[in-house]
Specification:
This protein is an alpha/beta fold. The chain is built from 8 helices and 5 strands; from the N terminus they run E-H-E-H-H-H-E-H-H-E-H-E-H. The chain has helices spanning 18-30, 41-44, 54-58, 67-73, 92-99, 102-108, 135-147, 169-176, and strands at 4-10, 34-40, 78-84, 119-126, 150-158. Strands 2-1-3-4-5 form a 5-stranded parallel β-sheet, sandwiched between helices. Bound molecules: flavin mononucleotide.
Length: 179
Amino acid sequence: MFKKKAILFFGSANKNGFTFKILNKILKKLDEKYNFLLIDAYEKKVHPCIGCEFCKNNFRCKFKDFEDIDKNIVNAELIIVASPVYNLSIPSTLKAIFDRFQPYYFLNSSDNKKKIKKKRAILVLTCGSDETDFTIVQKQISASLSLINSKIDTKIFWKNTDKNSKITSELINQISNLK
Ligand SMILES: Cc1cc2nc3c(=O)[nH]c(=O)nc-3n(C[C@H](O)[C@H](O)[C@H](O)COP(=O)(O)O)c2cc1C
């Protein structure tokens, strides 16, 4: 069966942590439909954006460590962002990746506008507390994803991992209904 292209941005340093655990179930569910390119933020360690504005005129970054991601962004049809919450935000390694979307900001507001395929996005967040407010982190991620023509249509949030170390049946149900 023909599989659609998907990019997975993985923001956890723990290869056996909560984020990985829930992501694994999601991937098993979506594996039939999508081919995933995994971008592990802690392994990829992209150079942080330095705001030099090279991309303002060149529509690409002067650092070359992002080209494999760029190549795949244009045609991907699904983005998954899976990350723990760090200080109401995302780990710095994943934030560095989103900051590197800056060439798309300039590309989108230029005459050179390149056609980036419209894509859906799934946001997967885990956090230790039951009381963490996801407003800021969702806004951050949505803003970055909009630069690559991508919109979150599904949110899977595993809160309170400090105390609830087992995936709840509600989350399992949500995953089994994923399209
Ligand atoms: C540096 C750091 C900052 C954190 N900040 C928050 C936070 O603001 N709110 C929260 O609920 N949990 C916070 N946590 C807890 C993690 O989000 C939680 O343990 C998460 O499930 C870890 O995912 P992982 O097992 O994939 O690493 C933080 C953890 C670390 C290490």
